[in-house]
């Protein structure tokens, strides 16, 4: 009786990365960013939903008051960037696993990259250029500190 014939292993997918150990660094980034994201997300949820009046307190004034402090802007920016890069890296791995044609894989990687960069840029603009005291706004909707700035 002879041993069954084994088929040739699948062709290895080239990711186009030139750096040594790129997948190892990707793996480490996913673990580290995941741990940091857990801390940021639970802090975000506790501050926004558990402390105070819960979800009913979240309005323009709440966000304006929160983003008046630089550390909340930094925390939200860090959460935005880490979440998008973490999710983008995970999607990159899924594309590598399921897109077998090189052209399809390249197109999907390009679309993913453009989407991640676009959302990071737009989210960053919102966080860093947010004006808590816009001109011509209804004063009843503005946070309390806007009256002292305007007057």
UniProtKB/TrEMBL annotation:
Entries under CDD domains matching the protein: SQR_TypeA_SdhD_like
Localization terms from the record: Membrane
Entry GO terms, CC: membrane
GO function terms (MF aspect): metal ion binding
UniProt entry keywords in alphabetical sequence: Heme, Iron, Membrane, Metal-binding, Transmembrane, Transmembrane helix
Xref: InterPro entries: SQR/QFR_C/D, SuccDH_FuR_B_TM-su
Transmembrane segments: 28-50, 70-95, 107-130
SUPFAM superfamilies the UniProt entry points to: Fumarate reductase respiratory complex transmembrane subunits
UniProt main location, coarse: membrane
Pfam families in the record: Sdh_cyt (PF01127)
Gene3D superfamilies associated with the record: Fumarate reductase/succinate dehydrogenase, transmembrane subunit
Protein name: Succinate dehydrogenase hydrophobic membrane anchor subunit
